[in-house]
Each structure stands twice: as C-alpha cells, then as structure tokens.
Amino acid sequence: MNGECDGKCNSCSQVNECTDPQKEKWEQEQRLKQKISKIKHKIAVISGKGGVGKSTVTVNLAMAFAIYKGANKVGILDADIHGPTVPKMLGLKGQKLQANPTGISPVTGPSGIKVVSMDFLLPNDAAPVIWRGPLKMKAIQQFLSDITWGELDFLFVDLPPGTGDEPLSVMQLIPDMDGVVIVTIPSEVSQNVVKKAVTFARRLGVPVIGIVENMSGFICPECGAKVDIFKVGGGQKIAQDLSVPFLGSIPIDPEICSDSDKGTPFIAEHPNSPATKAFTEIVKKIENFLQHHALKEEVAK
Ligand code: ADP
Fold first, then answer.
1. What pTM was estimated for this model as a whole?
2. What is the DSSP letter of 128?
3. Distance, CA 52 to ligand 1 centroid (Å)?
4. Which of 156, 260, 262, 277 has most ligand 1 atoms within 8 Å of its beta carbon, as the pocket-test mutant?
5. Distance 53 CA to ligand 1 centre (A)
6. Taking the domains of the chain in order of start, what are their residue ranges?
7. 216 CB less than 6 Å from ligand 1?
8. Among residues 17, 53, 227, 276, which one has the fewest Cβ atoms lying within 10 Å of its Cβ?
9. Cα separation, 179 vs 208, whole angstroms
10. pLDDT per position as a tens digit, 151-171
11. CA pair distance 68, 208, nearest whole angstrom
12. CATH fold of 27-300
C-alpha cells in the first residue's frame, strides 16, 4: 500500500508487500467469490419479522428444487445467526461441519441438500452466538469464504429476520443474488413490515422475486371447513400495491409444524397435500422469474 489505498488490490503494484488490513478483506472477498462461483442461482428468503415461516418456506422450497432438479444440486445457507432452525427442520441436529483440504464442507441432508448453518458451530442448544457488531460480520465473512459448496444449481439463503443491520450485512457479503422471496402472513400488521422488506431489497438493488403468504387459512381436518385464522389475501393485496409478483399462499397445516419438529421435510412426506401443491406452484413461478431474468440480462449485454 502506498498511502492512497483504494482497496483495489488486483490493480495495485505493491500487493505482494502490502500489510494493510484492507488487503485481508479483499483476499477474503476473492475467496468467497471463488467458493460460490459454481452456484448458478442464489435466492435469499427474507421476512419483515420473525415467526412467519421464513425457515419453513426456505427448507420446503429447497426440498422442492432438490426433488425436481436432482439431488446434490441444491444448498441452504442458514444465515439466521441467532435463531438457526434449518438443521432441526432437516433432521441434521448435532451434525458438525468438517474441514477438507480446501476449506469446510457443508453437511449433506435429505435429497442431497448441502447445508451450512450457524447451528453447526454452536456447542449446544443453550449456547447463544456471542459475536458482537462488526466482529460478528467479520467472523461470518471469514466463515463463509471457507465453505466449499462445489457446483450447485440453487443456493437458498435463509436470512436473519427483519430488515436491520444483520440481514443487510449478510446480503452484502454474498455477491450476485438473483433475487429475494419475501415471506409474510396475511394480517395487516405483517403487511406493514412487508413494505419495509420490499424497500430493503430495492435499496440493495436486488430484484424481488415475489411475496409468499404463509399461514393462509386453515382447513379443518374434522369438517373440511376453511377458517381464515390470520385473515387471507393480504399478501396478494400488498404485492399488487407494491407492484411486485405474488407467488402463492401456503395454508396452515399442523403436519408442517410436526414435520419440522421431527426433522422430516414436509413436502417429501406429504406430496399430495394442498400445502405441497402450493409450494410446487411457487417453485414454477420462481423458475419463470429466473428464466425471464436470464433473458433480460442476455438482452442487456
Ligand atoms: P421464521 O423462520 O419466520 O421464524 P419458522 O419457519 O421457524 O419461522 O416457523 C415458525 C413455526 O411455525 C415453526 O414451528 C413452523 O413449523 C411453524 N409453521 C410455519 N409455517 C407453517 C404452516 N404453514 N402451517 C403450520 N405451521 C407452520
């Protein structure tokens, strides 16, 4: 470094002698880019707030893509730093990440899904992540730049809930996201936070693939009557209001909850349920989005 460092180490003549911390950051970014270079599509799943089913949607979308697209080609990055639940939902609790000669291997889950989660780093369930502020992001960046994903068709990133610093920092770490899927529930309270999630994506320049309305009505297993517990249709309305696509509605199904607790992915266990049909319709819309997006980029070249 010659005192006027612009952070562009690749064009710097003094890169070999440089000891500036910026160089370390740049090297890490290059490692991260290289490690994810063989991933065709990266999709982030976000929610304006917690508890709306973001991880449930991530896991079941990833499973749907793995089942329809072939095993070993789908990955999940569970970046929900303080409440990682993906390993539990996929029956991978207690597994640990293994080092390999070029980095760290993801854990392989059902249908060959490659999973990386903060949960694999914690010694036990009661242990919280104690990294704070900038240190936390530095640790995450370092960790991510070591993951050897290999070739993947799809990587789903389960972001921390909300639209604050944490999801923002994780989004900024991963270059070239194809888009975000926003998960909400139908209540009006949740619709207000969806607006924030759309603004969040737009500010980052990442396309909104669309909105998923989860917990959209409940069909009584006894009498077949449909009960709209959290109202219904709010997701579609807010999508229209904000001019973003609506991807579909997933009903409340008690099996979704019990399968998550058992660690058996719902759509694999219940291929004919209305919720699975809703997930497969959403998958088709995501595929359409990706095709159009690729076409648009091709035309823009
Ligand atoms: P988030 O990631 O937004 O915090 P989760 O995906 O962890 O939310 O879901 C919270 C809880 O709700 C979990 O116990 C999950 O099994 C349950 N759940 C999510 N979606 C549904 C649904 N459509 N029907 C029934 N239970 C659901």
1. 0.92
2. P
3. 6
4. 260
5. 4
6. 27-300
7. no
8. 17
9. 5
10. 999 999 999 998 888 899 889
11. 23
12. Rossmann fold (3.40.50)
